[in-house]
Design goal:
Layout: E1 2-11, E2 24-30, H1 38-52, E3 60-67
Antiparallel strand pairs: 1-2, 1-3
């Protein structure tokens, strides 16, 4: 298995200052890096969101999703 990281970033209305919600889904992003374990994925996500919050205080959520690292010969397409 490999793990993929999906980030979701929520936005406030234009011109909002110190907005307390409700928030609307604004953007999703798949992180290019692949992870070998779920804890590795979660740790990366938490650190990345922490760095992003230095400049942008919008709520951010993440999901670590498992996918097959390899498929056997003859796998359906």
């Amino acid at each position: 298995m490999k793990w993929l990281l999906v980030l979701t970033i929520y936005t406030a209305p234009p011109g909002a200052v110190d907005w307390d919600g409700p928030w609307t889904l604004g953007m999703t992003q798949l992180v290019e890096e692949q992870f070998n374990t779920e804890p590795e994925c979660r740790t990366y996500a938490i650190r990345l969101i922490g760095r992003m919050h230095d400049g942008m205080l919008a709520p951010m959520r993440y999901r670590c999703i498992s996918v097959e690292a390899d498929l056997p010969k003859g796998a359906p397409r």
